[in-house]
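Table S2 (text version). Query chain:
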Amino acid sequence: VKPGRNVVHIFDINGPDRLDCHLLTIWVRVNGPEIFAGSAESVLDDNKQKCHWEFSFNLQVVGEYEVDAKLLNWNGAAIENDPNNMPIHLGNDVPWEKYPNHVSVLGFKLYDPPHSCCEACSRTKGCVYWSAPALHFDHGWSCEFYFNDTDATAPYKHYSPKIKKEYVKKELRHKTKAHGPPHSKATSYYMGCGWNFFLTGVSQCEHPLDDAVYTKENKFMLTEPLSVETSSIQKRLPLCDLDQHESLDGRWVREQYPDEATCPREMDTRKDIYSRLKHHDLLMFQSDNPHCWFRDDMTTLGTRCFVDGCGTNKKMVWKSSIVKDHEWYGMWKNYACDYVELTNAELQQCFDNRKIVSMQTHGTSVAGYINEYLQQRLSHVKFFDAEATDTPKEHTLNVTLDTFSSPHLMWHNSSEEWKREFEEQPSPLPWEEHYYAETMYFVSEREPFCTAPRAQVINRDMEEILIPKGFKKLNAFEMSSAFSYDSATQMDGMHIIGPPLRMIITKLFHYVCHDHLYRSGADVY
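Corresponding structure-token output:
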């Protein structure tokens, strides 16, 4: 291993040569003094007779590294999926007489049983009809699957044996609310051991490494540093510019855990400050030491369960070396530029100079978590008082950080529908700055169709439609991929907290403020 560009190569050694590598999503992480993560790319050989996967990374810092790779999705993009056009019938008139074999299957997070059961049936070999809820379980998050083959069965552990027709006829009248055949669209398949709307708790995995890509030795040492001329670590970089740098590559860089002289106050973690993160240890911001905010105790981050069923999947959750780190300290760094960390006093100066009258998040669950970190910073500054100073609205600034509820758009809409929603978004007004955080990197399928490949699709659509309207993008997909397994709430692989969210807030304030603290090419300070 040499400094500079290196590549992880992944090959399928079981079976014939294949040309469909692009359909299989493999998450890869190279973890050491620098952390690189994301999806391996499908690569055809020179003769275009077979394919494999590659993940490239640019090493600069000496030290020990480990490589992990795990299977995620088959056909995970499945952009033709249209949840609003599934063959769903409401009522109790299930033609059960047609199907000699049917089983009751208990799902996991079937928040929307008709659509979830239709999708699960469509992914189940031999399933020709479905109804919801199931007949044999007194639970709304369940499905009844019907088969033509009398010997067929659902490949899940939580299912009932065949049910007598008399029981079916009696129970159908009272329980069935929706039913229908499987849809005819292409389906994706979750291949991991994490949360899945249908399989969690009845996981196909017997061990957290069942979805891992095998490697004989996954550790290596980089002993030779990159030259000073080419290393971004040792260079003095310009401040990041939103239009030039936010789409460029970066990575997480670990730093030596700060001593008492650097961070005189211990990590202040509380669980009772803000409602959404009350179940988690929330690291509090320290006004005069902004860099100290990037410490974390990864052993406690996101590990608590607080919804039904979470605990059933704990034994299947993979715990990497990052989860064992009591003293995590690091930041996301761009290769071409640096981000400014602002003290409370500097942030107040920015708010005064720019006459910022409001700053808020917009979206649903992910935006709610981001807001918890935003409120830490806002609780120590005062908004500009336009009324007291008799300042016209057009001379003030309103800042919004949005997620556009993108996971919910992926869950409930086709790609054409979410594109229409973005196209209908009004452009920001002259006294508004409207930022948005990309959809994060999912390593689960907690809700149907919420996969990492589909997140890439919706992120691309947001960029193509929203940026020309005047919206401003914050990279969250790449940043979150390194922590998707390690800092998601309840280990669900979707609602990621910790380092990526603090970095989103750092980026937000950097872009809002750095031009208004920057002085004639000198540092912000």
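Notes on Table S2: DSSP finds ten helices and 22 strands in the chain. The domain at 4-76+205-222 is CATH 2.60.40 (Immunoglobulin-like).
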